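Why predict the complex rather than its parts? Because the way molecules touch one another can change local conformation, and only a joint prediction can capture that. The input here totals 440 residues.
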Amino acid sequence: MKLIFVVLCTFNIYFPGGIMAEQKATNLVWHEHMVKREDREELLNQKGTLLWFTGLSASGKSTVANEVASRLFKSGKLTYVLDGDNVRHGLNKNLGFSPEDREENIRRISEVGNLFVDAGIITTTAFISPYRKDRDYAREILGKGRFVEIFVKASIETCEARDPKGLYKKAKSGEIKEFTGISAPYEEPLNPEIVLDADSQSIEEEVQAVINYLTNNKII
Amino acid sequence: MKLIFVVLCTFNIYFPGGIMAEQKATNLVWHEHMVKREDREELLNQKGTLLWFTGLSASGKSTVANEVASRLFKSGKLTYVLDGDNVRHGLNKNLGFSPEDREENIRRISEVGNLFVDAGIITTTAFISPYRKDRDYAREILGKGRFVEIFVKASIETCEARDPKGLYKKAKSGEIKEFTGISAPYEEPLNPEIVLDADSQSIEEEVQAVINYLTNNKII
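Output of the joint prediction:
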């Protein structure tokens, strides 16, 4: 019955106002997603992928993530940046900074990233995401080839020298507790797809390294 | 300083490998989203909009939401369906059916819908969403012209006659508690943008009514 209905509906695409118009509301079970990720990817001419930037505060994650997204967009790709600005003030505004809340924060970002990738979008996330298990959760739900872990490696000294919001100063004085790299751990990725070296590379070089990876791996 | 940096970077778009290559990691504050919703909408040639279907279980919300998304996609629009299949098992898998969890369920869907609309996508949601205040929350965060409330009006009799999962039977026997329409309230929308009448309209007619609204309001 379900198959027949799907066939009727497919038929109707080519004959609008045809037999479907006679189909009054009946006992339908028809909750399949008719448009698949592959269809959206074909429309967009790209592969939905999550580019997961991880690294210390002020390592340059957001800057590089934004620039990669912008560069790809200018070449006609649909991109989106998930970061503190649009996630912490909306979806995750009811989360604080307890260990449980931090884990839930990253879990929700992973799940939203998964939905964005399912929509066919090249999505970048720029969160410290200091714990391996949280990043591995994202890797697991996204699946092979859909998750690109990008470690923005920067020494504490580099980050402190930038420190645009004065957070390191506050962390060192104890005004901010449990600050990653100062008073809370950062677990470096063991096998990230890409390592960027913020101590020696320019922003431009970091961006280009990511673009090269995406090109070489046929993501763009 | 910030302005100068943005200018340098804009400049660099046209001269890749140029001055930006000399810009070593310094004290940057550059977290603006360089690509805006308007840019993405121009790329996609559409207006990011959240089509929020609401109505009783088995009223046909998912069917119509999927078919609208599918129809638009076939005309070249990027669409995405948020529904129980991809939300309850992922982002909202840690939520149950208590009043607080139901509210949080709809809140998260609203926020994710807002992100999708920001990405430029015509997004449909198909959840019972029985409470006005929850739907009004979505309306408020999406903003004027970005939220289209679609009330799929169906009598309990119509829904019971369909009842693909046998839920109404279980609700009446008490096996399922707090079932919307039987043992829990459904608050009808007061001023929805669209009302569909599942008792008298065919699926095809309902879909066409939504398409007509989108066309008339220049969303597509």
